[in-house]
Write a structure and sequence with these properties.
Shape of chain A: globular
Radius of gyration of chain B: 18 Å
Number of strands of chain A: 14
Structural class of chain A: alpha/beta
Largest sheet of chain A: 7 strands, parallel
Order of helices and strands of chain A: EHEHEHEEHEHEEHEEEHEHEHEHH
Strand content of chain A: 15-25%
Helix content of chain B: over 70%
Largest interface: A-B, 19 and 18 residues
Distance between the termini of chain A: 9 Å
Structural class of chain B: mainly alpha
Radius of gyration of chain A: 20 Å
Number of helices of chain B: 2
Oligomer: heterodimer
């Protein structure tokens, strides 16, 4: 039995949820997993793994913006992120001084590594996307990523290798020799499972992401959803309100759904409307959904790129929330030209392969 | 201090220095253009404007080429 420290970033729940299959696999091999996290990421993992040991481990401030200008705010946040990074390194030293570990798994936490303990890094962004006008900054970020990756034994990318089936497009393409030497494409990693439920729900609308853009999308979508026909469920992703609202016989608004309920609804949905966050994309790929409409969060360059990339690949239709005409866009998204994601290996096989080919060499000694 | 933090701090300082230099360059060019127009030296002003357009086009062309060749 080995001892493993897993530390996901708490910028959204995507990092924590994609680590769930990895942690399950490690526990299945009788390893001892300690989870160092904070906020909602910690809460989700505590619910999922009540038997694991948890350490409160703060990460970086989240520079989400009220407007579409996320990038300038991120740049202004750099000094605060750097300060948080410095604290993260000191806190990690304290954690490692108290207990010994055989492996460190960092999900997008830049300061979680050790020169003495094998460390692996999970990320789907080897290449940050910026508006074209900032191309020198994009190239510089690729080089900086390479420097950061030198700290790790492996860089695990939850995507298929670059090529026709890569879900993250250029984002998961290694740009430096340091990254190329360490990268391991695990394939998609999702905590959502394909169920036996039939597809009896016409539309599932998932309004998620950071405030205030989540609320903005709610304001744009709700009036338009009521003009569509068929059975509809709207997930507001707003945990503050736990009261379900029934809008009509065919339309239900649920302020917040547990991960199990959300999984059930996603399985039942014939058509999904959601943000183009990478975790949602892995969920759709895991469930083999063919019909969806994506609405990227304004200013989040990663989501904007993915929306553009899927449109270019003719996998899914996307629309900006400022130009959204739901009835028209649903009709467009249903066109046969959009094929959905290609067939790919699912999480269960991917996580087994990841363990055998990467993780086992550090912990099964 | 941790090398990651030192590298980050140096990178950040370099970035902010580059922004300051860029803003200073823009200010200097605008001032030069203004003074050349004020002194009636229209050829100099035209030359500066042409240089800005050429440099800007070159910059954008490189960006387009990088995008088209899938490098960014």
């Amino acid at each position: 039995m080995s001892r493993i420290l897993v530390s996901p970033l708490n910028w959204g729940l995507g990092h924590a949820t994609r680590d769930i299959p990895i942690i399950k696999n490690l526990l299945g091999h009788n390893h001892e997993v300690t989870i160092a996290a904070c906020g909602n990421a910690r809460s989700v993992l505590e619910q999922e793994f009540p038997g694991c040991r948890f350490i409160e481990f703060p990460d970086y401030p989240v520079p989400y913006s009220q407007s579409r200008f996320f990038l300038p705010k991120l740049v202004a946040f750099f000094p605060f992120i750097l300060k948080a990074l410095s604290c993260e390194r000191k806190n990690l030293d304290l954690i490692l001084a108290k207990d010994s570990y055989d492996l460190i798994i960092s999900d997008n936490r830049l300061g979680v590594y050790s020169s003495e303990i094998p460390s692996v890094f999970i990320t789907h962004q080897l290449h940050y996307h910026l508006p074209m006008i900032f191309w020198p900054a994009e190239l510089l970020a690729v080089a900086m990523n390479g420097l950061e990756h030198e700290k790790y034994r492996h860089i695990i990318v939850p995507d298929n290798p670059p090529g026709g089936k890569a879900l993250a497009g250029k984002l998961s393409r290694p740009g430096t020799e340091a990254t190329k030497k360490r990268v391991y494409f695990s394939g998609i990693l999702s905590s959502t499972h394909k169920g036996d439920e039939g597809e009896d729900l016409d539309y599932l609308v998932m309004i998620s992401g950071p405030e205030p853009q989540r609320r903005r999308l709610e304001e744009i979508l709700l009036p338009q959803v009521h003009m569509t026909e068929g059975s509809r469920v709207i997930l507001l992703g707003s945990p503050a309100n736990h009261t379900a609202q029934k809008q009509s016989d065919t339309c239900r608004v649920i302020p917040y759904a547990s991960t199990r309920d959300k999984e059930n609804l996603m399985n039942r949905a014939k058509f999904i409307i959601c943000r183009s966050g990478y975790t949602s994309m892995m969920e759709l790929a895991e469930l083999g959904k063919r019909h969806a409409l994506f609405i990227p969060t304004p200013g989040q360059t990663e989501q904007e790129y993915l929306a553009w990339y899927y449109e270019k690949k003719c996998w899914f239709h996307s629309q900006s929330q400022y130009r959204l005409d739901l009835a028209d866009d649903i009709q467009l998204a249903r066109q046969p030209v959009y094929t959905g994601f290609p067939e790919m290996q699912k999480t269960e096989e991917n996580v087994k392969r990841l363990y055998d080919q990467v993780l086992a060499q550090y912990i099964d000694r | 201090m941790d090398d990651l933090v030192v590298t980050g701090a140096l990178g950040l300082m370099g970035f902010y220095l580059a922004v300051v230099l860029l803003l200073f360059a823009i200010y200097s060019v605008v001032r030069l253009m203004y003074s050349s127009l004020a002194s009636g030296n229209y050829w100099l002003a035209l030359g500066i404007a042409a240089a800005i357009v050429i440099a800007g086009s070159f910059y954008l062309a490189i960006g387009c080429w990088l995008h088209e060749t899938d490098r960014i």
